[in-house]
């Protein structure tokens, strides 16, 4: 699976703790992240992560491009709902693309845990259906 990690500043510690707790589940998957989040995860774990730019500098859009190319299976995006984000339009665009392409997004730790446990059980076979019925393709 191809998994992306994004965390707002006040959620980075929570993301690092989460990924550390489930490091064994993430082993063997292809992982992506925005800049600082990915760096912090790699410093705390043995995971290798392809890092993009920081979210406000275009990292959210780079991950969005992977979504639009059907190159991601899951995004864990720990958002800070109590802090205004200067790049909110980029965040909204990324979430809209996930809805268009049927990419599951966890925006809090509870949903992230449910999705990671699904990965561990191999419950992502439904993604084959999403690939079969891509948006914009008519039969």
From TrEMBL:
It catalyses: dihydroxyacetone phosphate = methylglyoxal + phosphate. GO terms for molecular function: methylglyoxal synthase activity. GO terms for biological process: methylglyoxal biosynthetic process. It is an enzyme of class 4 (lyase). Keywords: Lyase. Substrate binds at residues 8, 12, 34-37, 54-55, 87. PROSITE patterns: METHYLGLYOXAL_SYNTH, MGS. Residues 1-139 form the MGS-like domain. It holds the Pfam family MGS. The active site is at 60 (proton donor/acceptor). GO terms for cellular component: cytosol. Its EC number is 4.2.3.3. InterPro entries: Methylgl_synth, Methylglyoxal_synth_AS, MGS-like_dom, MGS-like_dom_sf. NCBIfam families: MGSA, PRK05234.1. Catalyzes the formation of methylglyoxal from dihydroxyacetone phosphate. Belongs to the methylglyoxal synthase family. This is Methylglyoxal synthase.
């Amino acid at each position: 699976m191809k998994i992306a990690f994004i965390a707002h500043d006040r959620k980075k510690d929570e993301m690092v703790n989460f990924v550390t707790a489930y490091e064994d589940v993430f082993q063997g998957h292809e992982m992506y992240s925005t800049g600082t989040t990915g760096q912090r995860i790699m410093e705390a774990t043995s995971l290798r992560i392809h890092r993009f730019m920081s979210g406000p500098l275009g990292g959210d859009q780079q991950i969005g491009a992977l979504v639009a190319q059907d190159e991601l299976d899951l995004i864990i995006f720990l958002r800070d709902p109590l802090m205004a984000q200067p790049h909110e339009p980029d965040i909204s665009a990324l979430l809209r693309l996930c809805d268009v392409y049927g990419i599951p997004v966890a925006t809090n730790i509870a949903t992230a845990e449910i999705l990671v446990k699904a990965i561990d059980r191999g419950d992502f076979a439904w993604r084959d259906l999403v690939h079969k019925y891509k948006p914009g393709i008519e039969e």
